[in-house]
Design a protein that fits this description.
Elongation Factor Tu (Ef-tu), domain 3, 33% strand
Length: 240
Amino acid sequence: MSQGLIGRKVGMTSVFLEDGTQVPVTVLQLGPCTVLYKRTMEKDKYSAIALGFDDAIRKDKDGAPRITKPEAGQFKKFGQAPMKVVREFRMEPADVAKLEVGTVVKADLFKKGTRVDIAGITKGRGFSGVFKRHHMKGAARDSSTAHELHRHIGAIGQRKTPGRVFKNKRMPGHMGVENRTTQNLTVVDVDVENNLMLVKGGVSGRDQQIVLVFPATKGPIRKVIQQASKAEKKAAAAKK
């Protein structure tokens, strides 16, 4: 199956587990995603599949989807309906061969109790100061020398040598709208009929933000799978 899914952040709520513990969860709409095309080692030098998500594209007066001509040509080449979001997911060649173009991948790809990594774009905070952007302490509140300068950045440069401000200096500026991946989130529940998944904790981004969900790269289940695959490779090498 696919090594990931495209989804949308719905919002946050809380649920009660079987032992009565209340946990905060993020509700994600996962899929359904359609396999648009495949990348193979023979043709493209790498193996992957491309998934499309959300076919609700705005249309013009003639009923044609409002996409560019190159995009329309690509979807016509695939033989699939235009999608709002298209992303490639790297996979092993054997796994790519099992999936056919047009296959629909749903939320049942992930199981309850497993761990996932979720990539999203953080909320935009606009132009922010060093207090909010870099968590600086600021000047003393009870100091007579810090008149109206409690939240200011302070000195940023040097004297004649080197006579400039170094690059990457922590200063006020634009904050947010950055790619962030939250790792090792536990899947609390999966609703396949409604294409919903609940994960414990928060996910970067505003509501209705597009997110990418992958199997956890550092979770315990992933480690067990990696160890098993290594053992199989060693056994195969020993037989040769």
